[in-house]
Design a protein that fits this description.
With about 375 residues, this protein is an alpha/beta fold. The chain has 14 helices and 15 strands.
Amino acid sequence: MIITKVDVIPFVIPLLRPTKWAAGYMDKVDWLVLRIEAEDGTYGVTEAIPRPMIYGETQASIYFAIKQFLAPLLIGEDSFALERIWKKMGSLASNPGAKNAIVIALHDLNGKLLGLPVHRMLGGPVRDEVDLVWMVGQKPEQEMIDELLTKVAEGFFAFKIKGGTDPVGDVRLLKQFRELVPDHVRLYIDANMQYDKEVAYKVLKQLEGVLDCIEEPMQAGDDAGRLALARSVSVPLLGDESVFTVADVRRQLDLGALKRIGLKMPRSGFSLSRKIVHLAEANNVKLQILTQSETTLGTAACLQLAAAFEQISLPNEMLFYLDVADSLCTRGLEVNKGRMKVLKTPGVGMDVDWNKVEQYRTRIVD
């Protein structure tokens, strides 16, 4: 179907509770709604997520990248010509959040045109429910313990603890967590690359038998250090900042240090994620979807990807939307005992309440 219109709308919604981690702090989501319309009036929609500290994109930069550079490349194109569109977008360097939002919106559009959910278009589903991770952010220790125990009682069985700034405290807290929860509960920590080589080794040696895995204990560029660490401890390493691109994933798989790889939709969307999935499958490495602070709209796209591939078999981080004060969507997501039900309506399974979009719309100053 021929693409006739591209709209991008910035919005701001506050968080119900601020999120703090080793490298930053958030009290709102200031994302963008992207809508791509075909000649028959059908449209695909998603959110574009700027993360300046990670990808170098801001709300304003994504807005202008799409309006000035990428949207003109889409008008008149076949919405199903995804490889050709991706090649055309290569005329603008970087900008992964902008480009992958376009890919996600096109999948939503094409799914609606075909009457299929995106997971069917990707070859799924392989599961009807997706296992979830509950993330425990940095806060006073007793609050973290209380939150963990509350969520275990609700049926959650996988937890990510944000750490990195206090290695001694990380060890103490994780050991305490392990004693408090049943054996089947998975615990892992995101150190946000804050440990050096020596500290990473000391922390992980003390947490062998406690942790299910650790996410990025040291700087992403330290391949030699990562490999040495992986060879000296039994705790599996999970890649995030070290696996931004398909080429990064291939290099890390060749290195052999990572036992798990994280996917994030703003940097790999559906098309690049599929390539990463196949690389991981060929190397017998499991995958999980990591949060990029999605609202309900962005979470729906993550859910479609998680449902489509067997290799995305680890619990996924898809609950950040619960901390967002409002939703732009006309329906919610169904979570029960640590699992999310897969949406089976066409596209990503969500549509937008455009009155809500207007309510939270903000202005980009030229």
